[in-house]
Amino acid sequence: MTEQAMRPQFMGARVKRVEDPRLLTGQARYVDDIEVPGMLEVAFVRSPHAAAKILSMDLEAARHAPGVRAVWTFEDCPVMLWQRDTYEVGQPVLAHDEVRYVGEPIVAIIAENRYLAEDAAELVTIRYETKTPVLDMVDAIAESPRRVHPEAQNVFFHKVYASKGFDEAFNAAEHHLSETFRTTRQTAVTLEPRCTAAMLDPASGRMTIYASTQSPHRVRSDMCELLGWDENQIRVIVPEVGGGFGMKANTYPEDIIVVSAAQKLRKPVKWVSDRTESLLSDVHARDDIHEAEVAFNSDGKIVGFRDHLMADGGAYPAYPFSGAVGETSLASRVLTGPYDIPYIATTIDCTYSNKTPLGAYRGVWGPIASFVQEGLIDRVARALGKDPADIRRINMIRPDQFPYRNSAGMVYDQGSYGESMEEALKLVDYKEFRRRQDTLRHEGRYVGIGISVFVEPTAMASSEAGSVGYESVFIRIEPTGKVTAAFGLGPTGQGHETTMAQLIADQVGVNFEDVVILHGDTDSAPFGGGTGGSRSGPIGGGAALVAGREMRARLVKLAAHLLEAGEEDIELGAGKAWVAGVPDRAMTIKELAEVAYTHVKRIPEGLPIGLELVARYQPKRAVSFSNGTHIAEVEVDVLSGLIRVLNYVVVNDCGRLINPMIVEGQIQGGVAQGIGSAFLESLRYDEHGQLVTTSLMDYLLPEATEVPRITTRHLVTPSEGEGGIKGMGEGSLIGAPAALVNAVSDALAPFGAMVRQLPVLPNDVLDWVNA
Amino acid sequence: MKPGAFEYRKATTVKDAVAWLHSDLNSKILAGGQSLVPVMNFRLAHPSLLVDINEIAALHQITFNADTVTLGALVRHQEMAESTEVRDRLPLLAVTARHIGHWAIRNRGTLGGSLAHADPASEWPAVMVALEAQIQVEGPDGARTIPASEFYLGYYTTELAADEIVTAVTISRTRHRLGFAEVARRPGDFALAGSIVEDFGDGQGSVTWFGVAGKPERVVLALPEEESARARSFQSALGKLSQLDDDRHRQQLAVTVAERAFQHSRLTGHEYLTFEGGQV
């Protein structure tokens, strides 16, 4: 790398997002904006029962309803999600013999518009014989009251791990305490719901699929695998996506129906989920129980964690990955977080139930594991009568321990764990807070502070974006000297058109405005994994750096030849190449491009015609850890049970920053979602397995009024990968819930409260206060 | 989440609206639509006819008289919050309006719609019961006036017949201090509990709750100076409600909001919470 490229002009700058003008003025185009003459729309008849045999279906009235083109059952689209051997069960895209969760699609009505489709859906009569629903996770693991799938055990994933010498060390510790931690079902609730449109090109016979997804190429692969298409016969276009958060990393039954209907009816077909469908049928997440135990000594040193991790995976494993497995297996490996806890023993049980399948939601395992880990740390502090910050100091992984192999075998690269906490404590003026807390308690006001130090595994070789451990960039300098680069990423609001352009502009030596980033079209983008698991910055960004550098080398060779100078003397920047120290001997990149494309006889031997190439980047490390500390100050109204966040501080380390403004935006959003997790959001099923939170009046999201001003500071511990970049899409939501609920526990310490269940509701507070 | 088909008619007089309602027993009035349209979209309601009353000019009026004020059924919540006349002369109503939903909801939702919908957690029914308002309705047999205290029967049920329309509410001027308090999960949510307290100034007063029972009821009670005695008084007033919810902690919340409403009425510099000319 030349010295110049090491002094980047755009990387690290607060460049305004190029996406925002179209988003903020309503000009962005989403799947629902795709209107094609003759387009049909789909409505689904969904199961009203958690568990029932289907005795009969009467579809005649619906078939004859106005505007109805087709009424489909499983026989019309006999596709199973999961035909592989991974799990013993697969989900039929339309339930045919039995329904296994409320909201499961049974009949697809394809009509001239959504109104008529919903009218016809009301005319479908289905007779059911209800069965006892399997709703309790602990019972289900014990095969009670019955199996969800007669052919398969309820426990579909079971894993046991213990570090060597665990029992002896754990038992020898001076103190033990245990707690059962319970997270609650949540879902992503994207602004733009799930939606898919598909249409055949009658001339070529190719299928175009408009998808709201995080992984364009994976959608293409899934369609090929499930519907028998060839990959070159399918084009997946991902227009603007209004949020994904892991929930749009799956392929769903509705997607298969839409594509299949477009094929068989030879008409454009679209389905756009409504909010109730979203809450019923988007993958759920976070339905976990941790029966945890910690062994520690009187000095505060923690010896080991033991944890039985349980997750309710819902009726089927989501396709193509089960969130229950993701939440538990990674939690079991990073449960010790930033702490040097030498022993761990974990047992994982993931079970089926008569609920919506569990998938990914931002942070996946992280918010759960941090809640458990930071909850245990605070319990140790309270048990020993020590300051929670001190217990963290005693156990924190020290800088000299990197690279650090944790007791579950995960290797952490360099981080700033202790430093991030000390910086955050300074920002909140921790000692002063404790004084204020004491004073206020005497006035009957209960404020509390919660610390959450987190690690965030990013840029992993496999994630919800699949086991594609690399990303690809197709980069081209146009004949006019402008730069176009296409990615296989699937941004859902992260601002890749800005960040990737920053990285490429620096490397190629052009202005930021001269770079256009393309994504979301499998016909133009090189094969890639997509966006998920905080991989787009470090892996996609790494690929951008490699592609830009290779293009730069091409330009330098060309310029050196044309300017009759040595390659080592060529400098690039602001759209020009010049000979070092002789700024007059210069050519614009436009002039170089003219040679490359037009006056090709001037191209030196060994260089190809044109200026385009594909570059790929796969990090050497299987994972790179970001880290940070969140500190929340809350006030609990002990008369109403309401909780208000007074102050919030984040010290974040995601290696080298591409764009601090975008990083801070990610943090703001994650903290907001953390407030939802801690105090508001809960998908509740009643005793019959009915989801009772099917609108946003019942499923409460954080609003602007709940989100405090957030103070953010950045620490920079570069990764060993390209650009020193680490991922950071999830850390804020990993850290936030633990900080918030620990603050509640701290505020209500006079009542002996310790939060063990998410979310904390007003009645929970009043229970503690009145106990 | 699309409604089923329905017929739509726009009325310009109350008489027309009532006649149309009477002609089709599966008809509904469309005012602000903030409750009706969602339940139609959920297909929980299938009205065959929607009678849009938004263009009946007479229902939009706010009229101040010497000793009463009459509020038209189509007065929007946001108008109540923003009207300088209401803020000057009926400030409790402006305070209340700001607690209803969000700006977009307040901008469409109407007083009459809220009163007729009778959600037990909503503000207007309780305020009107607390202020002993008179609700004017009109049906095929003409107009009648129902005291707010008799208008509400229970959860989402009122004295209003299927072919009657709420046209206006009349409130008499009162001379007492008033206070309002509400506890909700998030600003704009329906209340977990809310209360209007009136302090007669002689150790007596009234309390009216919302969100804690099937319907709002005004209870006259003692308002002792000592806080714990007041709490006991609120507690015993709760016992007089005919449809009290049994949610755990709900009674404690009710006492909490009543006390906060009382404190609200006592705030110095907040004389604005009394009616015009009211001096304690």
Q: Can you describe what's shown?
A:
Chain A has 771 residues and is an alpha+beta fold. Chain A has three domains: 3-28 and 470-617, Aldehyde oxidase/xanthine dehydrogenase, molybdopterin binding domain (Aldehyde Oxidoreductase, domain 4, 2-Layer Sandwich); 34-131 and 189-281, Aldehyde oxidase/xanthine dehydrogenase, a/b hammerhead (Aldehyde Oxidoreductase, domain 3); 366-460 and 622-770, Aldehyde oxidase/xanthine dehydrogenase, molybdopterin binding domain (Aldehyde Oxidoreductase, domain 4). Chain A contains 20 helices and 32 strands. Chain A has a seven-stranded mixed β-sheet. In chain A, strands 9-19-18-17-10 form a five-stranded mixed β-sheet, sandwiched between helices. In chain A, strands 22-30-31-32 form a four-stranded mixed β-sheet, with helices on both faces. In chain A, a hairpin with a 2-residue loop joins strand 27 and strand 28. In chain A, helix 11 (366-384) runs parallel beside helix 19 (731-747) and helix 18 crosses helix 19. The radius of gyration of chain A is 28 Å and the shape is globular. With 280 residues, chain B is of the alpha+beta class. Chain B has three domains: 7-52, Uridine Diphospho-n-acetylenolpyruvylglucosamine Reductase, domain 2; 57-172, Uridine Diphospho-n-acetylenolpyruvylglucosamine Reductase, domain 3; 177-273, 2-Layer Sandwich (Enolase-like, domain 1). Helix content of chain B is 32%, strand content 26%. Chain B has a five-stranded antiparallel β-sheet with strand order 4-5-10-6-7. A four-stranded antiparallel β-sheet of chain B has the order 11-12-13-14, with helices on both faces. In chain B, helix 10 (227-238) packs across helix 11. The longest helix of chain B is centred in the last third of the chain and has 17 residues, at 250-266. The radius of gyration of chain B is 19 Å and the shape is globular. Mean pLDDT of chain B is 92; it is low at 269-280. The chains are: A alpha+beta (771), B alpha+beta (280). The A-B interface holds A 114-115, 118-119, 122, 274-277, 639-642, 680, 695, 697, 700, 703, 705-706, 762-763, 766-767, 770 and B 1-5, 38, 42-43, 183, 185-190, 192, 248-249, 252-253, 256-257.
